[in-house]
Amino acid sequence: MSIRILKRDKIKPKTFRTFALLAFIWALAGSAAPRNLDLFAGRITSASAQQSEQGAANFNGQANRKNRGLSPEARSHIRQAMAAVGLILVRNNTDPAEKGPRPRGSAVVVRQDGVIATNFHVIARDKSVELYDEIYLSLPVNGVVTPSASRLHRLKTVLINKELDLAILKIADDSIASGQSSIALPTIEMGDSRAVRELDDLVIIGYPEKGGFSVTVSPGTVEGKDILENWIKTDARLIHGNSGGAAVNGEGKLIGIPTKVVVDKQPTDKDGDGFPDGFYTLGAVGFLRPSHIIASMLAQVSDIEMKAHKGQAADPRMATTLPQLAVSGVVKSALNGKPIAGAAVGLTPLGTQEASAKNILTWGYTDADGQFRLNKLVPPGRYTLQAKTFGYEIVRRDIELSRENTQLQIELRRSE
Question: In 225-348, where does DSSP find H-type helix?
Fold first, then answer.
């Protein structure tokens, strides 16, 4: 029997990354002995069976939660939240004079003084990064919005994050009724999107294009989270026009902004000629931007407003993107302080007890000097750090990363 050695440049990038991650998990396990794999990655020999059982459990749990429906209390909270979700209408200066603003998407009021959140693509011209010349918000009365001029609030942009497809806008002073120095709009309460878990109930609120001028709600569950890419995944229906609206929990609190849908379409070959002549849809996954990003942007807005009040110019970098951190550090022996080469270091979601291919967010190995640099950037926040190498005890501790804290010092102790 011969063994074929595959060169890296002959392996597809995705396949190579998979091999690399499996090798990393194996290194974290610290030994080739199957019993040691339980320390981090679980038993590989039963992984497929566990995934199948978990998938069945998730499916059954999701079905049971949906069958139970929302409690009367939850329905009441969600109805209150509906009043804070409005319709975005847009218009360009080059449009015919008789043509009024047209519906474009949804938005949610996040501050009583008229600050709203929506998706950037809702206020940007089709297939462009340029904004519409006129952007308006219409809030519902008894669940219905109207495009009439008397019910429109003109908006001005305050903060834009193109990378995350988010925007913060505020009602312009000239759109407030004459003699009214301030406004108090119905506002949605901010939820803790970091605490959201798989199979949690949620409801999408928005104004889909095919839904007319009345609000539309769609219940569903949380299907998963992508912490590094800043997504919450859901099976709730996200329809064109829902973008920029609200995803709320059973307390009516904002946990995400509906942003995009990924549809699984597969080709069909009905006539058997070997060429696809149509497609069938297997399903779709809705993607939400977590509300903690909106909370972070609102903090930036407050800083901008404070500086404007003092006559200071705001930092233009604030409107680009949320920070992404490069994490690096050194691993040393707790006994003599000498660097340890070949140690596996990784970050997992906060509170994770076992590392696996599913929950490792970023990882790396130490070099001959004990230095490491994790392979992916991460947003600021709290994580569980895990480190291991052969002959040493596993290090597992919770850490908080910030711009001032990206250099990690790790000490390993000899295992008994």
Answer: 291-309
> Rounded to an integer, what distance in angstroms lies between the CA atom of residue 188 and that of residue 116?
10
Q: Domain of 276: which CATH number?
A: 2.40.10.10
Same domain for 240 and 334: no
pLDDT in tens, 270-287: 777 777 777 777 778 999
User: Is 159 part of a structural domain of the chain?
Assistant: yes
Give the whole-angstrom CA distance, residue 110 versus residue 229.
23
Instruction: Assess if residue 6 is contained within a domain.
Output: no
Expressed in percent and rounded to 5, the helix, strand and coil fractions of the chain are 25, 35, 40
For the segment 126-136, what is each residue's pLDDT rounded down to a tens digit? 777 889 999 99
In a domain, 367, yes or no: yes
Predicted pLDDT of residue 29 = 55
Nearest CA to 123 out of 98, 147, 106 is that of 106
Number of structural domains the chain divides into = 3
Q: Once rounded to an integer, what is the mean pLDDT over residues 68-73?
A: 79
Domain that holds residue 96: 83-188+296-319
Query: Which position has the token pair 């790396």?
Result: 364
Tell me, yes or no, whether 288 lies in a domain.
yes
pTM above 0.70, yes or no: no
Cβ 138 vs Cβ 131: under 8 Å:
no
The verdict on 220 and 142 lying in the same domain is: no
- Spatial strand order in the sheet of 395-401: 362-365, 344-349, 381-388, 395-401
